[in-house]
Specification:
The protein has two domains: about 100 residues, ornithine cyclodeaminase, domain 1 (2-Layer Sandwich); about 170 residues, Rossmann fold, CATH 3.40.50. The chain contains seven helices and 13 strands. A seven-stranded parallel beta sheet has the order 9-8-7-10-11-12-13, sandwiched between helices. A six-stranded mixed beta sheet has the order 1-6-5-4-3-2. A hairpin with a 6-residue loop joins β5 and β6. It is elongated. The chain starts with about 20 loop residues before the first strand and ends in a 10-residue tail after the last strand.
């Protein structure tokens, strides 16, 4: 008889959980211990596992608070890893309370028993992971000689893109554009190679990689600004349209979206999305299968 099948010595009502030690990590702890290069490599492994069916990542569930915001629950598990449930609360009015508009909590559970093993702040890792997915796509799918990038958006995602992009290429310059030019200036001031510019069109036209990180209900670039072969990842989300032009694929750019399910739901024109696979016959790819891709 296996250990799983072995009958307990006591009845169920006699067994209590009792005191257990649970690791807790604050946002400061997460920032301290999270290595960004390891994050990029870990995401690559995770996307590959997702494509191969090794990672369980069921659809997230949502609770809505009318007029305030919404809460998302995101479970996931991969063999040999902890079971994970992340809760992300998105309340856009939080900025007026001097709080981030995305707040998150990550819970880890022992896959052998289901017992809680760790509770950690998830706000920082949520922001950096989102940007890292886009930057990873650029590392794997853009040409290695690319040296000029543009980041559109000077919020949390813009900040994390500017931090992560230098880890994948020796860029000559990263242009930073924002609806509020002063925000772009503040963000660019924290990087030796970042440059704030008010001319979005010129920045896009000269760029090899254009990262869209704006919370915009309408496209923030025009397809005719994008030169052939440009890599254009998008992480902004604002249904039903959003920051990414619908006809961008016709420019022969390599367009990558962070979340295939979300992308197809938010953009009616992308009806051919299947899971996390490539969209054959055009130049649009979605996170997941691109982990098997390589730049050409």
């Amino acid at each position: 008889m296996s250990a799983v099948e072995k009958q307990p010595d006591r009845a169920a009502f006699e067994i209590k959980k009792g005191p257990r030690q649970v690791m807790t990590l604050s946002e400061t702890d997460v920032v301290k211990y999270l290595d960004l290069r390891e994050l990029l490599d870990g995401l690559e492994d995770g996307f590959r596992g997702l494509e191969l069916g090794e990672v369980q990542s069921p659809p997230r569930t949502q609770l809505s608070v009318a007029g305030k915001g919404f809460s998302l629950a995101m479970p996931a598990w991969c063999p040999s890893m902890q079971m994970t449930v992340k809760i992300v609360n998105v309340f856009n009015g939080n900025l007026s309370f001097n709080l981030p508009n995305h707040l998150a909590l990550i819970n880890l559970f022992d896959p052998d028993t289901g017992a809680t093993s760790c509770v950690m702040d998830g706000t920082y890792i949520t922001g950096i992971r989102t940007a890292a997915s886009a930057v990873l796509s650029a590392r794997m799918l853009s040409r290695r000689e690319f040296r000029i990038a543009t980041v559109i958006g000077a919020g949390v995602q813009g900040r994390e893109h500017v931090r992560l992009l230098p880890l994948i290429r020796d860029f000559e310059r990263i242009n930073v554009c924002s609806l509020r030019f002063e925000d772009a200036q503040k963000l660019a001031a924290g990087s030796e190679i970042a440059h704030a510019t008010i001319d979005v069109e010129a920045a896009v036209r000269e760029s090899d990689i254009v990262c869209l990180a704006a919370h915009s209900p309408t496209p923030v670039i025009r397809p005719d600004w994008v030169k052939r072969g440009t890599h254009v990842p998008s992480v902004g989300y604002y249904p039903p349209n959003g920051e990414l032009p619908k006809d961008l694929a016709s420019t022969r750019a390599t367009t990558v979206c962070r979340d295939a399910g979300r992308f197809s739901a938010a953009s009616g024109w992308l009806r051919r999305t299947r899971g996390f696979g490539f969209l054959r016959g055009n130049n649009t790819r979605c996170s997941g299968s691109w982990s098997e891709g390589r730049p050409t």
